[in-house]
Amino acid sequence: MGDTRFIDAAERRARLGVRHRLAGSARATSAAEVGGALVALHGTDPASVFLAVAARLTEGVGPVGAVERALYEDGALVRMHGMRHTVFVVPSSLAAAVQASTTRPAAVRERATLLRHLAVGSSFDEAWLAETERLVLAELAVRGEATGAELGEAVPRLRSTYVYGPGTRQEGVQSVASRVLRVLGMEGRIVRGRPQGTWTSSRFRWALAEAHPERDPAGARAELLGQWLGACGPATEADLTWWTGWKVTDVRTALAAVGAVPVTVDGGTGFVLPDDPGPVPEPEPWAALLPALDPTAMGWQGRDWYLDGDHRAALYDRSGNVGPTVWWNGRIVGGWAQRPDGSVAHRLLADAGAEAERAIGAEAARLAEWLGEVRVTPRFRTPLEKELSSGGQ
């Protein structure tokens, strides 16, 4: 590998600032543009999608309206299960590739698991599940959209329960509704629509989904990996395996299919697309306040080039979910939280200098202004976020 190009941490941070639309001159004018730049926005916490887009939009573009138009009106973005069995918001142009490469195999496992649980914890079988699903789809065809509760009223079978893990320490009663809707969603037969309530709500309405075109899984993996390398390259094989959730052999096959070029990065070998340009000019100094689960903070398994390992315990929970972070020129330098009075508090974990403090303070003020009366609490609480939100300095 002695003749491969070396991409150091500074160049990786420069790429991040421009390609992730975080530097001021690189900010986007629409939610669809942000989604395309990042490939996938973590959607487990609905508020994170809006906050991630807001951090990357130019002044004067309303984040809430921009995201809602893209998701619910023009269909430029779609919410679906994807990589690592996680809910993401992805460009609709990539939905078929995500479905074929990642979601469909997970859906097969999800259905098998549900049938196994029903067989042990109830008298329901495959025929019962198929009829229940038929009734749900027929109801949505009539209604157009409905919440889980509304579907439960219309399809009494959804109110059934079963015993999960009988005879084990995990034994408990679970609802059929959430599992059935989850399977139908993962199979691409129904889709999450507008939430019941504000944009921070996770109680979504469901609607029939447009069928994804059939895709060859290998080709779909190559398309998705190529898009992600364009946004996040260089990335190591470990980064790619972690982000996609695929087998190593599938990652290697996709790398070969897109003609990925090996480069040297700190800690090993990374890959970029064959037409990826050479050294990237460093953008102007930039600051950003990114939300919990932001795709930039969660984009790579190896994070030493943008995260001080001593700060990990304060910024991530025990499961590895990142909380709200403060960035300066491509590095995480602290964390932030919204307090009950609506103010945005932040703390720097490293001395970033006076210019950074001014820029970060301006971003905090900008965030607090557009949030207004809305209060946002991350679904996965982290130590520093908890401390700051309760009044800690």
Automatic annotation (TrEMBL):
Q: Does the keyword DNA-binding apply?
A: yes
Do you know which Pfam families this protein is assigned to? AlkZ-like
The record's annotation in InterPro entries points to: AlkZ-like (IPR009351)
Q: Which UniProt keywords apply?
A: DNA-binding
GO: which molecular function terms? DNA binding
Alphabetized PANTHER family for the sequence: LMO0824 PROTEIN, WINGED HELIX DNA-BINDING DOMAIN-CONTAINING PROTEIN
* Protein name as it appears in the record: Winged helix DNA-binding domain-containing protein
